What we know:
Radius of gyration: 18 Å
Number of strands: 5
Strand order of the largest sheet: 3-2-1-4-5
Order of helices and strands: HEEEHHHEHEHHHH
Distance between the termini: 16 Å
Structural class: alpha/beta
Shape: globular
Number of helices: 9
Largest sheet: 5 strands, mixed
Amino acid sequence: MTEAVTRELMAQRFRSYLPVVVDLETGGFNAQGDAILEIAAVTLTMDPEGNLMPDTTSAYHVTPFEGANVEQSALDFTGIRLDDPLRQQVAVSEAEALGELFRPIRKSIKAHGCTRAILVGHNAAFDHGFLNAAVERCGIKRSPFHPFSSFDTASLAGLVYGQTVLARACRAAGIEFDNNAAHSARYDTERTAELFCAMVNRYKDLGGWQLAQREQGVEEL
């Protein structure tokens, strides 16, 4: 299968949307007022057999925006220490984090012949809400992501594996999950990406997405 055909298959698989897995660690549940503390994204690609797989990971520690709220309970849950000297050395502003995060996403959208990214997340509405609020705060005129559509791996995992908790869903899918590493945006995003790919590929293997039909459709274009 040629690279051009593989590229076309990816563009067709999700109606010209490129799935990008996103996870944020935050200072609470209020997207408008609570800080983003970590953000990570994993772009996805497709092999010549039409199997979805993780591609590149981008992850950033984020400095709370001016006036942002950070609940102590959120810090206790995630284990994030805002006064950690190592964190302070590498943390960047929301605007810088989004700028750096969006650059490889836009590149991947173009490389795969897609028109836009679509957010994949575990309980995706939470991450999508915080991402959209940050985009608005930073005055970014055009986010690479669809403004409201997303794929929720919690719902999909409930359907496929009967599990909605990320750690349990991963283990049901045969994906190793370290509870001690959880609640890091990078770690959770990479496991969520593996989980999403496993579910999409399993559906294809069961005949839910006929690769041969897709190839025929590409040839007719």
